[in-house]
Amino acid sequence: MKISARWMVLVAVLAGAYPAASWYTGKRVAARFMTSKDQPAQTPFIKLVKQDYQRGVFSSVEDVTLELNLASISKPGPAAPPGAGGDNTGADPAAQAAQIAQAARGEQLPVIQLRFVSRIQHGPFPGLRSFGAASIKTELVLDPASKTQLEKIFGNADPLQINSTLTYGGAGHVSLSSPAFSTVTDRDRDKLAWQGLNMEVDFDKEYKNFRVSLNAPGLTVDSLEGQSFKMGAISIKGDASKAYPTGPLYVGKSETILAGISFSDKADPKKSFSMQQLSLNTDASIKDDFLSVFARLGVSKFMFDQLEFSNFHYDYGVKHLHAPSIAQISAAYSGATADPEKMAALKAVWEQVGPTIINGQPELVLERISIVTSDGEAKLTGGMKLVDANVTDISNIMALYPKVQGNLNITLTDVLVSKLGGASQKDPEMQKAALDAMNQQIASFVEQGYINRNGKLLNAKLEWSQGKLTVNGKAFQR
After folding, report:
1. What are the angstrom distances between the C-alpha of 29 and each of 54, 75, 209?
2. 282 closest CA partner among 267, 262, 296
3. What is the pLDDT of residue 413?
4. E-strand stretches of 157-272
């Protein structure tokens, strides 16, 4: 079979063009990586210690060392010295152990260094497996002592696997996983069974939007003394978008669900507890230049000290925050906790935008705190806001006092109130006396109109305005 010269020329052109395309793609990817080195600067607890990028035609290697400054989370001031580690190791284990012991004594928290090596395959067909700008495999490089310890748990499996892809449009996908393991601790001989973890992250150009999902099937810890701790499956889903083109302020929603958590002790059953179907939802949004942030925590059922509760909810938030001003504060806050100069800059920003935030009358909202027992439901709702306040009032409690407006609605059952009144007394006679006193007080408040009774339900509405408290519309005086 004869091969046309035309096809031979085409193959030759493609063979020469592909290395050029791969080299050019590698150049663009390198520029993207070097730009991303500034990302940790937006997080005050992460510092880029080293970034070495070796670019080739078809592939490249990036070597990065990051420093996690836990000390800056707890209090401002100079960070503890990092562990001494060369270019080929992480932080010195002995130094880090000393820092952790120091933290346990209530002193400054440690600084931890982590080294990552990324092996990057250039497009247009990275690794000849897909189409895109790059595919990246990232390895966590451990010092010999840490590696030996983790091999006892994970064996020959990588404790952390990170794979990423980048598109020509600037978007990307990151997949992170950790394998399941079953082991026995050296010291206490506790049995640990971890069922692994998987996380997926999608992001678009310039990290303006994120989507995150995480799944961890669960953890079990059993001790020789008959104690057992179990954590069920965890799932996390969330999305976040930059509120403004520049700055670190993001808005979005997240949902975290924990199937259950329990602890049992055969020697002392009273220490046992369990919770089922825990959920946490967050929601941050902006409307008409005002930011609202809410968190809603729920527990389907929980038991402790042989008592059973259900349908617990704690839903709260803040709204009517001037979003552009909050964005300015967020940008100034990045890194400020460990930098006195940035703290001064943050104070200056607050002095500039504080009046706008206060004049917007931000409001704390208690959507509900509620719980159901065998005696009925207890529920609280309410809110609080500042009216006609200014920045100088914040530092003067007496000036702020009459500018606070708030309300609280309380609903309880009479049996639950009585139990709460005598709960602190262990002696039966003292408990009876406390219950009698509580019931007399309730009867007095009902007579005065401070409490409304509807069958077994007790309700009261408290309002605070202009420095005065009213209960069910009546001035409250003790």
Report:
1. 12, 38, 20
2. 296
3. 83
4. 161-166, 172-178, 181-184, 191-194, 197-203, 209-216, 219-222, 227-231, 234-242, 250-265
Local confidence band at 87 (pLDDT 50, 70, 90 cut-offs): very low
Residue that is written with structure tokens 């009261």 in the block: 460
Residue-wise pLDDT tens digits, 422-461: 555 667 777 778 778 878 888 888 888 888 988 888 899 9
Instruction: Return phi, psi of residue 100, to 5°.
Output: -65, -40
- Beta carbons of 112 and 97 less than 8 angstroms apart: no
Sequence-separated (6 or more) residues with CB below 8 Å from residue 28:
133
pLDDT tens-place string over residues 247-262 = 888 999 999 999 999 9
Q: What global pTM score does this model have?
A: 0.77
Tally DSSP H helices, then E strands, for the chain. 10, 24
CA 231, distance to chain mean position in Å, is 18
Q: Which of 141, 172, 206 is the last residue of a domain?
A: 141
Q: In sequence order, what are the beta bridge partners of 117? A: 63, 139
Tokens standing for 279? Answer: 């959920």
In a domain, 114, yes or no: yes
Q: Where are the beta strands (DSSP E) in 243-373?
A: 250-265, 273-287, 290-304, 307-322, 363-373
Q: Can the peptide bond before residue 124 be classed as cis, meaning omega within 30 degrees of 0?
A: yes
Higher-pLDDT residue of 181 and 254 is: 254
Does 74 map to a domain?
yes
In whole angstroms, give the CA distance from residue 43 to residue 334. Answer: 6
**Residue partners of 319: CB distance under 8 A and separation at least 6:** 290, 291, 292, 293, 294, 362, 363, 365
Report how far residue 88's alpha carbon sits from residue 137's, in angstroms, rounded to the nearest whole number.
18
Give which of 105, 172, 101 is closest to 135, Cα–Cα: 172
Q: Is residue 200 part of a domain?
A: no
Single out the residue in 115, 141, 167 at which a domain terminates.
141
